[in-house]
Amino acid sequence: MTNISNNANNGILNVAHITMEYKLGVGGIKAVTTGLIPALAECDDIYPSVITPFFDVYNDFYKNHDVKLVTTVTHIYKGKQFKSDVFRVCTEVVNAKPIYHYLIKPVQNSPVAFIFNINEEKNMYQAFKHSEPQNRIEYFNSAAAAMLRMPNDLIPEFKIIHEHTWLTGLTGCLVKEFENLPLYRDIIKSAGKPLKKIPHVISTIHMLLNGQNGSLAPADGVQGLLASVGLPENFASQFPDHHEDINKNHLKQIALTTLYSDHVTTVSKGLAADVIAGKAEGLDGMFKALHYNNRLQGITNGINIKDWDATDFKNLQEFAFKSKSISADKQRIKNHLITQYPNLDPNKKWFIFIGRFADEKGVEYLPSLLEAVLKANGNLIILGSHVVYTVKDGQCIPAYKEEIDALKVPGCVVVDNAAEQKLFGKLFRAASDCGVSLSKNEACGLVPMELMMYGLISVVPQIQGLPDTVIPLDATNNTGTGILFDGNPETRAKQLELAILEAARFLELKTKNGSLDPFLKNLLDTAKQYDWAANPAHEYAKLYKKVAQRDILTAENIKRQHTNQARVWAIGFNKCGTTTMFRFFQKNGIPSIHHGRQGSLATSIYENHLNDRPLLSEEFRKYIAFFDMENIYAEPPIYITHTLFKELDSCYPGSKFILNTRDKNDWIKSRCSHVDPINKKRYVDVLCEAYGISEAELVTRWSQEWDAHHAEVLEYFKDRPQDMLVFDIDNDDPEKICEFLQDMFVLDPSLYEHHNKTPVPYMLRFSPA
User: Fold this and answer.
1) DSSP labels for 198-254?
2) I want to staple 400 with a disulfide (CB 3.0 to 4.6 A). Which of 357, 415, 555, 750 is the partner?
3) Which pLDDT value is given to residue 650?
4) Which whole number is the average pLDDT over 589-606?
């Protein structure tokens, strides 16, 4: 067995997973961490550990294990010093590597010793008089950060910490800010030894749901969090480009998680694609910034195949699949279950819903599901858990109790207590024919993966990560895993019904033509690719090694990076004062660029856009103001101003845009008279040749482009006057620019003077359209 404390400098990566759920929990996080961490231990050079709060429920869970007190750490909570004990238990040994679970709780005589006194795993996120969820978050993250940074020979130095959800994202912020925080100075000084090195931080977004991002408001809520963990009072004002997510009056804790992460993963490739495409539940700018900086990746979750193997006696006992006919094995289980649940018909197709009774799981659509299943001549099994409670007549009762009880009709069975689910849950899965998801948000299709192992197809809405695992059925080739339906709220109930009827027809067709068993066997084989050890763990191991080779994104770099994104972009056409404005900015000491050598600025931005890279390459990132972004010698000619100004706005939050303009006819005359000083070619001749059109046609094209671009810019910025200025180079004074940009820098209007004015009147030979 390897001692992980000695692995810091020998190429081996010690990785600490920071999570609220491990082995125990209420949802997908428990399944992911419990499955991923042992699979990672199978990978070369990866030594995973896990850190959680020491909830009371772990006392019974680890009662037969050797749980040892390792150390005591001092940290900041509610602005004061507190002490917490760190315990350690070896949960298992994989590939000769011990997997250590570190558990944190206050010392016995602490005034908050009760903060993790939670005796049932289902209550890990519930509020109690003795313990509020936000307080638990602040306390645990603060203690975990101290454990990771304070010197201690009994705890290894972790090269990487892997946070799971925003609930533990504050840890990454604190480990990177640790030595900058005044309240920690005495704690650091008392150690008498150097701090452990700052680790790389990887964060995984397990769920992206509007309103469930750790939002704190108003100002006292934000300041309460900052003061509690020792962050300075002005901390929330240090990220102006993310002002909507982090400010003194409102703070999304998920935003802190992503900002301080060296890399962010989502639990499916589908969810990653969604957030890049603008479906980020109000965090679009944050995720686009991660994407453009190559710090975002989708890694589809896995499952522990052995836990769901229908052929394993451990999972189904005497009902494990053992005949050559999976459909016969299912029928045998149905015949058994109806002895306990006579409400079900063994001769019908069984549909099953598995999930929490909560809004995000689409609980209000359960009546529509039952109606659709009965219309398809099927039976419905509902395996759910009540997680939302309300107070009625002085008693705490499940919020959806009446709605769920109304579903207990002939042809439908509701199993909503843990003991009964533990006894019959896997048998219901194995007996059923089709699983159904009603979720409004589903970051990863874990349940469809599990159900595949029991030979079930799935009917799911086409959202987030579900299309990663639910592949459309192909009756001819015996491929596919289920049916996707449109999740639009206005038509969802009808689309659900159509999908249920389609699933019923598919299963009936397969049964009649004798091809059901080959199809079901293919389902079981397909499911094996989702085993944690088969692919996902190896993707994470590769990511760890890649991230470990990078320079750590320090607190200083984070603030510098997120305060220097704003730029000034001139998005009018050339020959509209671009040289005049460029030299005005230069004389005022603002790093500026005009055109670039032979149009290199426009070419670089355009190629980066095509290749999904940050729009500004390294050579151009030093500039603040940009002018004349075109290259007429490219094939085809490139005009960044009227093709990519929206992308510039998205990629560089906080930027200011100047629509430099003039009289259209004067502009056309100026363009027609312009000669390229380098190539000695008329601007008109170059473009006529490039487009294969006459001079008259070119002038008409310019006129149309002018009108379209001005209209599009004005429409796009119509509600953002603070971000876009219309500047008429013939009629407006430079003070107008100075006032517009006064929040960015101070400009001297006396340095403004016209350059490259058209020297003589140019007579147009054509009338622009």
Assistant:
1) PPEEEEEE----TT-S-EE-SHHHHHHHHHHHT--TTGGGS-GGGTTTEETTEEEHH
2) 357
3) 82
4) 88
* pLDDT, average across residues 464-486: 91
Q: How many CB atoms lie within 10 A of CB 294?
A: 12
| Type and span of the H or E element at 309 | none
Distance separating alpha carbons of residues 583 and 587, to the nearest angstrom: 6
Distance between CA 277 and CA 289 in Å, rounded? Answer: 12
Q: Which residue has tokens 């874990």? A: 446
3-class secondary-structure state, position 620: helix
Tell me: cis bond preceding 636? Omega within 30 of 0 counts: yes
Cβ 465 vs Cβ 267: under 8 Å: yes
Q: For 415, left (φ over 0), alpha (ψ -120 to 50), or beta?
A: beta
| pLDDT given for residue 757 in this prediction | 53
Rounded CA separation 484/503 (Å): 10
144: its two tokens: 């975990």
H-helix or E-strand spanning residue 523: helix 516-527
Q: What is the pLDDT of residue 755?
A: 59
CA gyration radius for the chain? 31
Name the band, by pLDDT with cuts 50, 70 and 90, for residue 769: very low
Beta-strand pair 68-77/80-94: antiparallel
The single-letter code of the amino acid at 435 is G
Helix (H) or strand (E) holding 703: helix 695-716
Give the DSSP letter string of 334-371.
HHHHTTT-TTS-TTSEEEEEEEEESGGGTGGGHHHHHH
The Cα 604–Cα 209 span in angstroms is: 36
Who's near 378: CB < 8 A, 6+ residues apart? 348, 349, 350, 351, 411, 433, 434, 500, 504
Contact of 187 with 228, CB cutoff 8 Å: no
* 710 pLDDT tier (thresholds 50, 70, 90): very high
- Strand runs labelled E in 64-153: 68-77, 80-94, 97-106
Main-chain dihedrals φ then ψ at residue 528, nearest 5 degrees: -65, -25
d(CA 353, CA 447): 10
pLDDT (0 to 100) of residue 555? 87
Q: State how far the Cα of 288 lies from the Cα of 614, in Å rounded to an integer.
A: 10
For residue 158, how many other CB atoms are within 10 A of its CB? 27
Examine the pLDDT at 541 and tell me if it is beyond 70: yes
Cα–Cα distance measured from residue 711 to residue 730, given in angstroms and rounded to the nearest whole number: 20
Other CB atoms within 10 A of residue 123 CB: 15
> Residue 527, class by beta-carbon neighbours within 10 Å (0-12 exposed, 13-18 middle, 19+ buried)?
buried
